[in-house]
Amino acid sequence: MKGIGFCPGSDSGKYAGVYSRKPGLNPHKIELDNMQWTKLQQYDKLIYSRISNFSKLAANENQSLMEEAKLPKFSQIKWTSSKPKEEFKSFTNVIVTQDEFFNKPHQDLNYLNAWNYGIFSFLSKKDFHSLSTIFTPSGNGLHFPKLKMDIDFSKQPGIIESLWKTSTMGHHKKKPHPEIISHD
């Protein structure tokens, strides 16, 4: 598990990171870093747009929280406490997991944000486009114990989006079947 943001999460045995600029890079690496930083700004907009389409309430609650707590976007170069209202239209923490990731059932208690949003897809290693393949072994998915509900990624081709209440909805990523883990 890898994180982008000022407050990434982690689970025992997994790791998370904060994307930040490294000092002392040569000019070529600075140019590459600048290109990556520009992409982060696009991700801010994409995630806000997707969550707004999913739930205006979730997007508005998050924007209010960011304004009140003066939280930065993850594409900001440094933490700044004053910025235009438009700057708060983003989500400050993105966690990227790979196909072997799984964790135990848990609730995200004491989180400031009221909503969790997940976007899931199997990606082609060649061009990183979403695969529309349905895999024979099942079990790689998101589980909500309280609802006795599974979202099985291996049986849903394309891109899957999910939005749930952070503190009231226990959840976990189920361990994937060994046949659908990429080992390289």
List key phrases describing it.
three-stranded antiparallel beta sheet; 184 residues; two-stranded antiparallel ribbon; Tet-like 2OG-Fe(II) oxygenase domain-containing protein; 2OG-FeII_Oxy_6; 7 strands; alpha+beta; 16% strand
Mean pLDDT: 71
Order of helices and strands: EHHEEEEEE
Helix content: 10-25%
Strand order of the largest sheet: 5-4-7
The tally of helices reads 2
Q: For the report, how would you describe the main beta sheet? A: 3 strands, antiparallel
Q: Give the total of domains.
A: 1
* Helix-strand category: alpha+beta
> In percent, how much strand structure appears in the residues?
15-25%
Task: Walk me through what this model shows.
With 184 residues, the chain is α+β, with helices and mostly antiparallel strands. It has one domain (2-180). The chain has helices spanning 27-54, 56-69; strands at 2-5, 93-96, 115-120, 141-144, 149-152, 160-165, 172-173. The strands form 3 sheets. The chain has a 3-stranded antiparallel β-sheet with strand order 5-4-7, with no helix packed on it. Strands 1-2 form a two-stranded antiparallel ribbon. It is globular, with a radius of gyration of 17 Å. The two termini are 16 Å apart.
In short:
The protein is an alpha+beta fold and 184 residues long. It has helices at residues 27-54, 56-69, and strands spanning 2-5, 93-96, 115-120, 141-144, 149-152, 160-165, 172-173. It is built from 2 helices and 7 strands.
